[in-house]
Amino acid sequence: MSTDFLSMLQLSDSFFPTGAYTMSNGLEALFKKKKIKERELQRIIQVFLERQIGPADCCALGSAYESAAKSDLAGVLAADDALFSMKLVQEVRSASARSGSQLVRCVRAFSEDKILDGYAGAIRKGKATGVYPVAFAVTCVALYVPKQEAGAMMLYSFCVSMAGAALRLGAIDHVAAQKMLHGLKPTIAKTARENIGRPLGSMWQFAPALDILQMEHEQMDSKMFIT
Amino acid sequence: MAKRAPRLGIGGPVGSGKTMLIEQVVPVLFSKGYKIGIISNDVVSKEDADRMRRNLATERGLMAEDLVVGLATGGCPHTAVREDPSMNISAVEEMEARHNELDLIIIESGGDNITTTFSPALADYFLYIVDVAGGDKYPRKRGLGIESCDLLVINKIDLAPHVGADLKVMERDAQVVRKNRPFVFVNCKTGQGVAVVADHIIRDVLFELPPRAKGRQ
């Protein structure tokens, strides 16, 4: 077994410190208005994947991955800038940048890579935001994780974070959470396949109801999650 | 680049007086010229951060309003300061980038159980606070927070006679559990004992250096 496979496990593990457990991506705001059930929750996550995380985050990840693999720091920074600009909700932008910059810092503590160092330097100087999908791409290149797998890992981690938030909000139990993750596997695989290879210029997202939900979360007085 | 400000982590059970201790100790440190920033982790809501901002910044002018930052923890307060302090570290660094004049950054944990500790990547010094109203068994029960913190603070000593707690028992047990490490009895409502806590911070966290505003680089 290669150690690269173990790097995949390490980066996908919810034990890996990226702060994902602090995010509900607007689910907390929705749950306050309406007690959603497992099936509806799964559908919401599918919409996130197909209309936001897939065509925007996964596309940026693929583009940044290609650039990092070619030691093209300018390409990485272009993906960082484009994706950060596309995130409409301040709280979501900020959380993604915080999470990504800490991911870069953590991986640099045990991996040496020129582009990873360059990206970290750009974040430090304010020339990059460290938005999570781009940071994830650069760390995956540094740790020899293949591109397709990197896309699937990020989408899967997003689903785990949503399932975890739903569980802590009391919307589902631990078995339902795993059942839902299993049910999302075909969408995760298809979304990664369809978006990981698209050029940066074709990046898009369109899920206005989810944007509004996340903006409503920003305005909540009492909340458990950052997003 | 200026040296980074030291970080003081404050943990303790819900309602033990973490926020009140900060509200008492910050004015003492401010009166000696120290400039302080606060990151407050709330379990649900941003009430503690809002209260400290109103009290310490808006009404008393002891700090700029953006020097009190509230942070949600996804219902996992100990994870946010130990297993995965990513969001806290980012918040601290963002604060320090905006204010390079700070002498100290206080990170308040959300209320949690007695096993809470801080990641050494987040806090240089760990203060744990319990209160008498939880019963005089607290020091004896040990727990990582009580045993391993740099300074144990026992709050609400005025309530001891009302809840049947014996301060002598707490003192005896704290001496056993803490060995030679310090503990302080306080009443955050009146400020009793707070100066002793401030002295510990000045000596053990700030190493008795003068405030940056008075010429320290």
Question: Would you kindly provide a brief summary of this structure?
Answer:
The complex is a heterodimer of chains A (227) and B (217). Chain A has helices at residues 3-12, 27-33, 38-69, 73-86, 90-108, 114-124, 132-142, 147-168, 174-195, 208-219.
Q: What are the SSEs and their pairings?
A:
The complex is a heterodimer of chains A (227) and B (217).
Chain A: H1 3-12, H2 27-33, H3 38-69, H4 73-86, H5 90-108, H6 114-124, H7 132-142, H8 147-168, H9 174-195, H10 208-219
Helix pairs in contact in A: 2-10, 3-4, 3-7, 3-8, 3-9, 4-7, 5-6, 5-7, 7-8, 8-9
Chain B: E1 7-11, H1 18-31, E2 36-42, H2 47-59, E3 68-72, H3 77-83, H4 86-98, E4 104-108, E5 125-131, H5 138-141, H6 144-148, E6 151-155, H7 160-163, H8 167-178, E7 183-185, H9 194-205
Parallel strand pairs in B: 1-4, 1-5, 2-3, 2-4, 5-6, 6-7
Distance between the termini of chain B: 10 Å
Percentage beta strand of chain B: 15-25%
Q: What is the overall pLDDT average of chain A? A: 96
End-to-end separation of chain A in angstroms reads 38 Å
Q: Uncertain segments of chain B of ≥5 residues (pLDDT<50)?
A: none
Share of helical residues of chain A:
over 70%
β-strand number of chain A: 0
Query: Roughly how much helix do the residues of chain B carry, as a percent range?
Result: 25-40%
Mean pLDDT of chain B: 93
Oligomer state equals: heterodimer
Assign the CATH class of chain A.
Answer: Mainly Alpha
The H-level CATH homologous superfamily of chain A, spelled out, is Urease accessory protein UreF
| Rg result of chain B | 16 Å
Q: Structural class, judged by helices and strands of chain A? A: mainly alpha
Major sheet of chain B: 7 strands, parallel
Main sheet overview of chain A? none
Unreliable sequence segments of chain A: none
Strand order across the largest sheet of chain B = 3-2-4-1-5-6-7
